[in-house]
Amino acid sequence: MIADHLVFYAIAVFILMAIGLIFTMLEFRNMPTEKQQDEGSPKSQRDGAG
């Protein structure tokens, strides 16, 4: 009887973890690369001028 409920909890936790993994992959896929981040920073402008 209790084991039946645990199966539903396990399925729910698995679905929530899968959703979190999908969102994490989407976030890292849309993150700008290091070159794109450095182009706009003042530090890279100072390094190029010196």
Name its key features.
rod-shaped, 86% helix, 3 helices, mainly alpha, single chain, 50 residues
Can you describe this structure?
It is a single chain. This protein has 50 residues and is mostly helical. The chain has 3 helices and no strands. The longest helix has 29 residues. The chain is rod-shaped. The mean pLDDT is 80.
User: Count the helices. How many?
Assistant: 3
Amount of helix: over 70%
Structural class computed from helices and strand pairing? mainly alpha
Q: Per the principal axes of the C-alpha atoms, what is the gross shape?
A: rod-shaped
Question: How many angstroms separate the termini?
Answer: 73 Å
Please give the radius of gyration in angstroms.
22 Å
Major sheet size, sense and barrel closure: none
Arithmetic mean pLDDT:
80
Helix/strand order, N-terminal first? HHH
What percent strand?
Answer: under 5%
Unreliable runs, pLDDT <50, ≥5 residues? Answer: none
How many beta strands in the DSSP annotation? 0
List the helices and strands and how they pair.
Elements: H1 2-30, H2 34-39, H3 42-49
In short:
With 50 residues, the chain is mostly helical. 86% of the residues lie in helices and 0% in strands.
